[in-house]
């Protein structure tokens, strides 16, 4: 489960947003949409904690795995400085991923870097012959990354930006409510907590359930430290579940949004 992965490419997609491709055949063979890797970002133990990064794409033939991330602090800044041919120490794939449908249309809702796990899900669904409809929103056009790659998948995309620079002006949740959903199509979403909270409320009003990939800070990535616990409903009670080990994918209706 611990791998020394060679860096195959490091692409800057937008200010502070990078796509990293690794040669990691065992990870590529095992990874499922919605799972993640815990990545050591430097060659030393400083920073001590690994960073959780969703598996963004897999090429099993080449043994390659892509990760999408934003530079937000020292750890990810160090990761962005890592050079081609160098090796990264990674743990995974980890977590419980999405329930991939066998057939029929699917709806994906991505906010910002929520596209990271959903792109992998879209790839797998298209390989199975599913029709894929994506609602994708961000603050501006330049943060709507992987547009060319999404186009190559042959999926239908509805765009939303806060500043109106591409697609509808407003949030991706507002866009979804405007366009509506195909009947009975399963819904999958990933993005920042405020977006997921708003989407959960909208889907509840529509009488629809969904699977959400949650974002939380993680310490260990394997459930030992319990630093990423979230409150969920269990029958009439509330319990805490670990995003890393029990998730990161949960049903939208079971998460307690506070």
Automatic annotation (TrEMBL):
Residues binding [2Fe-2S] cluster: 220, 225, 228, 244
Give coiled-coil spans as residue ranges: none
Cofactors needed by this protein, per the record, are:
[2Fe-2S] cluster; FAD
- Pathway, per record: Pyrimidine metabolism; UMP biosynthesis via de novo pathway; orotate from (S)-dihydroorotate (NAD(+) route): step 1/1
Matching entries from InterPro entries are given as: Cbr1-like_FAD-bd_dom (IPR008333), Cyt_c3_hydrogenase_gsu (IPR012165), Dihydroorotate_DH_ele_sf (IPR037117), Dihydroorotate_DH_Fe-S-bd (IPR019480), Dihydroorotate_DHASE_ETsu (IPR023455), FAD-bd_FR_type (IPR017927), FNR_nucleotide-bd (IPR039261), OxRdtase_FAD/NAD-bd (IPR001433)
Per UniProt, where does FAD bind?
A: 51-54, 68-70, 75-76
State the name under which the record lists this protein: Dihydroorotate dehydrogenase B (NAD(+)), electron transfer subunit
Encoding gene per record: pyrK
């Amino acid at each position: 489960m611990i791998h020394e992965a060679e860096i195959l490419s490091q692409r800057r997609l937008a200010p502070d947003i990078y796509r990293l491709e690794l040669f990691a055949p065992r990870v590529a063979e095992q990874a499922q949409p919605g799972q993640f890797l815990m990545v050591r970002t430097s060659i030393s133990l400083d920073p001590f904690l690994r960073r959780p990064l969703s598996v963004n794409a897999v090429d099993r033939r080449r043994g390659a795995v892509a990760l999408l991330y934003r530079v937000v602090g020292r750890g990810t800044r160090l990761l962005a400085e890592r050079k081609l041919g160098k090796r990264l120490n990674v743990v995974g794939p980890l977590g419980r991923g999405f329930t991939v449908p066998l057939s029929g249309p699917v709806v994906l809702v991505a906010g910002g870097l929520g596209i990271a796990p959903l792109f992998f899900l879209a790839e797998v669904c298209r390989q199975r012959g599913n029709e894929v409809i994506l609602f994708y929103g961000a603050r501006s056009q330049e943060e709507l990354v992987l547009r060319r790659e999404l186009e190559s998948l042959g999926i239908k995309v509805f765009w939303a930006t806060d500043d109106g620079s591409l697609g509808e002006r407003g949030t991706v949740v507002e866009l979804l409510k405007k366009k509506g959903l195909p009947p009975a199509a399963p819904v999958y979403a990933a993005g920042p907590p405020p977006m997921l909270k708003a989407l959960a409320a909208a889907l509840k009003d529509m009488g629809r359930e969904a699977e959400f990939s949650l974002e939380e800070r993680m310490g260990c990535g394997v459930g030992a430290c319990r630093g990423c616990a979230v409150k969920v409903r269990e029958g009439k009670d509330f319990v805490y579940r670990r995003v890393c080990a029990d998730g990161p994918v949960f049903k939208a209706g079971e998460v307690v949004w506070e």
